[in-house]
Prior knowledge:
It contains 17 helices and 19 strands. By secondary structure, the chain is an alpha+beta fold. The strands form four sheets. An eight-stranded antiparallel sheet has the order 14-13-12-19-18-17-16-15. Helix 1 (2-15) crosses helix 12, helix 1 runs parallel beside helix 14 (566-598) and helix 16 runs antiparallel to helix 17.
Amino acid sequence: MQAFKGAAVAVFALLAGLGSTQAQTRQETAPPPAAKAARPSVVTAPASPPVAPALTKADVDLWLDGYMPYALRTGDIPGAVVTVVKDGQILTTRGFGYADRDKKTPVDPYKTLFRPGSISKLFTWTAVMQQVEAGKIDLDADVNRYLDFKIPPRNGKPVTTRQLMTHTAGFEEVVKALIYYDKPEPALGDYLKNHVPKRIFDPGVTPAYSNYGTALAAYIVERVSGEPFNAYLERHVMGPLKMADTTFRQPLPASLAGHDATGYDKPGKPSKGFEIVGPAPAGAASSTGADMGRFMIAHLQGGELDGQRILSPETARMMHDSPVDKVDPRSLIGSLDRMELGFFQTSINGRNVIGHLGDTEGFHSSLHLFMNDGVGLYLSLNSGGREGAAGVLRTALFRDFSDRYLPATSALADGRVDAKTAAEHAKAMAGTWVVSRRADSTFLALFYALGQTKVAVGPKGELIVPSLLGPNGRPKDWIEIAPYVWREVGGHDRLAAQVVNGKPVRWSWDFGSPFMVFDRAPAGQDAAWLLPAVVASLLVLILTFFYWPVVALVRRRYKAAPDISGKALTASRAARAGAGLLLALIVGWGVGIAKLTSSPAAMAGGMDGVLMLLQGLTWVALALAVLTAGWNLWLTWTDGRGWARKLWSVLILLASLLLLYVAATFHLLAMSVHY
């Protein structure tokens, strides 16, 4: 099982690419509708708001000079670019460290191209809103109106462009051909037609981040505008904004080749090269810090920069502050941060902030716009660093920048829930939860099951979420500030649950709530019982298989004859052989998945034949194991053998049936390479 858990971690690390995912659980959360519980006691703790230093180039540069070099060294991150904009101007854009670690090439914020990953989506969503403004896209119409292939309905309900922009179309996760290095970028339409994901949620109900959904929206722009998507962006977004050092083309065009920073997926390891993003509109951009500053200013100014307008003020306002009544309330958890149209809220210190994060294998980035303050902050790093240091750094930089220059304008006045009620609520939250951003219909479902999120209760009745870690690497401490609403002690994070009939049924936290939530694990797929049961089954199979050669050697040594013969002996040996087949199959899956998740070429389809073979062998091995175990059980119980052997024959059959259940439930028998 350790091998499977390791593979699961690798899968989740990959999924962190082009988005914000489980691996990034070091962020924020907030409130749901108040439950009909005992009225909490409320205690406010007034504090004087801090006096912020002036946000000037001199002060920011001095602060960054003390902040970034140390953070890069301790995190083992080669280089970074940071851009701050204010009041329609680039206040500062700075390069730190190396664009190429081995050549010691310094980062030039005006020339060095970083890969902002999923921040690229903001360009795609801007293009979508241009076509909405032009009357060519209706946000609430069935997307099939614009496509030359069909997205199937779910429960009779189609997908709309608004749902694509808010990640509520209901698509399951797709990781095949997400990022690779040794193949050309596929045509956008071909990629979409070959990777249509299953819809696992009704539309508009559940946030579930989707790279596929973004690429689909870009294809709609391509179809309604009549222009290839890359050319469209160059003409209608980057061109008007004079972003000459920004492109979505893969590989880089000749005019920009050689200016790219080198991305390192592991510290101290060689770079794998220039990443090709399969669903290109979801994460293919390459850009300088200076160009990203121009993009931020345009959005902060309602779609205008230097007299050039990419969106009307009304369209920009709709994008940045979308109507809540257009979103299904079931997708919202109280007052937690939510999706706007493409941007997600990252509000802090009582200020209206929208933004996006981005991850590829080699680059990790963040963009935040303080909409009412005219301020933008952009960071990109060219390595994940040691033990996820990039994720910690980008969160810390945003929060420390906010606390220094844009603190709360009034004292924080959180409520408090009394200790007895808080302990009851924490107990109600305890259990196993599954994230909405997941695969359900492919073999990857097994690895999401292994990675289910646990919520527990501490010795003092406090809420504990082991996977939500602080910058110190330890689980965050939470205090309940309203019914089923918690705030991180000494931090900004809020966590909240949706309560139905007095019971929490869904929760999230501010960082994740715009694009993913956690629901109770179905009883039949709950890792709390399933994982121990699988371990016990493996133990039974191991003992069964290795008992055979051990006993054979002992009998040979003492020249003893088997105590059973005929059909009973044949059935016993067949059951042991079946156990061996299952063990070999599990090793095969473990090796295959380890290879799949460690090789972008394999993940891009290079192991399709192996995966089909593994699924076919799973059918054969499970059928033989269950049949032989059943035959052995029947003869053991009918020929008068002792109770110990009868009991063991039952355990062998149960172990085989459990693995059959796991294989069927988590789609190891699907005979599909769509994942």
